[in-house]
Amino acid sequence: MTRFMTATALGAILAAGSVAAQDLTTVNAVMPKQRSANYFPLIVGEALGYFEEEGIEVNLLPSDTPIPFVNFLRNGQADIAMLDSAEVLQAVAAGVDLRVVYEVMQTAPDGIAVSGESDISDVEQLRGETVGLVSDRDRVTMQIALDARGLTEDDVTTVVVGEAGPTLAAAFRDQTVAAIAGSGPDWLAIQANGIPVSLITPEEVSNKPGNTFAVAAGTLEEKGDAIEGYLRAWSKGMYVATFAPDVVAKIAQDAVPEEWEDPEFGQQYLENAIRLNVSVTDTLGGLNADTWESIQPGMQKFGLIEKQVAPSDFLEPGPVEAANDFDRAEVEQEVEAWRDANM
């Protein structure tokens, strides 16, 4: 638990201490990575005591499993799961009774990149060009991006480049591809090998929930307060990055030093995570029914989902309102006290 050296913060510590003296409620969560700067609101919220203040202990379930995360909700192992938009829509269409309670990433991490030295600035300029795929799973990303500009896969030549950073960088350096379809870690790997990149993903393609928090429908009745507390602590951790990214960096360096063995890469990794994790809506984690509606035709067209579903069938806005119910100024004061004590 963080200790602050101000009278105001001392009161917060005593309050937190009283919570710590009680039994904490365990929230079982599953997400693509364990504790990582890629999902910095968790490690920031833990370092600054936000989860404990909510009376919560976060138990992360193993993520290196072939079992779909939605199954952790169905069998009751997880109270909350991080799912991408396709996983949500596929599950709901299959009859899974789940509720999306928070949009973790409101910008898709996947997209289309070109070399920073390329003259190409829009996907429509890829007609007749070769587009690299980090892996074949990135083909749909390319198809949807091309479709947004009235192109099809037949208008380009595709080649699977592979996931290795040096290979991806060489594809740009040797000009064997004009663009690459991939995601954030791929762009960082290319940059780490000396090639700057620029993103040309159409806004209507990137403007979609990259990751969400979902719960089984009954969980809100059984553990509603704990879920709201979890999301509020997450929101506070996210908010810290909007005014104190240096504090987020320090916490990440301490919590996951293996991601900072190369400090430059670690900083770029965190900056990409902040870009993706900080909400673009005024409401942190806000649910946008119009976006969920608009992304489904393209996903169905290219086989990501079999049928479309009404957002009202799975969006549950109540927890988001609770997740935003905190004093921003108080968080700012606590972070400044933490900085004074730790940096």
TrEMBL record:
GO terms, biological process: thiamine biosynthetic process
Annotated signal peptide: 1-21
Family statement drawn from the similarity comment of this UniProt entry: Belongs to the NMT1/THI5 family.
Keywords attached to this entry: Iron, Metal-binding, Pyridoxal phosphate, Signal, Thiamine biosynthesis, Transferase
The keyword Signal is assigned to this record: yes
Biological pathway: Cofactor biosynthesis; thiamine diphosphate biosynthesis
Residue span(s) of domain SsuA/THI5-like: 37-246
Keyword Iron: yes
Subunit structure and binding partners: Homodimer.
Source organism superkingdom: Bacteria
Reactions that this protein is recorded to catalyse: N(6)-(pyridoxal phosphate)-L-lysyl-[4-amino-5-hydroxymethyl-2-methylpyrimidine phosphate synthase] + L-histidyl-[4-amino-5-hydroxymethyl-2-methylpyrimidine phosphate synthase] + 2 Fe(3+) + 4 H2O = L-lysyl-[4-amino-5-hydroxymethyl-2-methylpyrimidine phosphate synthase] + (2S)-2-amino-5-hydroxy-4-oxopentanoyl-[4-amino-5-hydroxymethyl-2-methylpyrimidine phosphate synthase] + 4-amino-2-methyl-5-(phosphooxymethyl)pyrimidine + 3-oxopropanoate + 2 Fe(2+) + 2 H(+)
Protein name: Thiamine pyrimidine synthase
Function: Responsible for the formation of the pyrimidine heterocycle in the thiamine biosynthesis pathway. Catalyzes the formation of hydroxymethylpyrimidine phosphate (HMP-P) from histidine and pyridoxal phosphate (PLP). The protein uses PLP and the active site histidine to form HMP-P, generating an inactive enzyme. The enzyme can only undergo a single turnover, which suggests it is a suicide enzyme.
One GO MF term: transferase activity
Taxonomic lineage: Bacteria, Pseudomonadati, Pseudomonadota, Alphaproteobacteria, Rhodobacterales
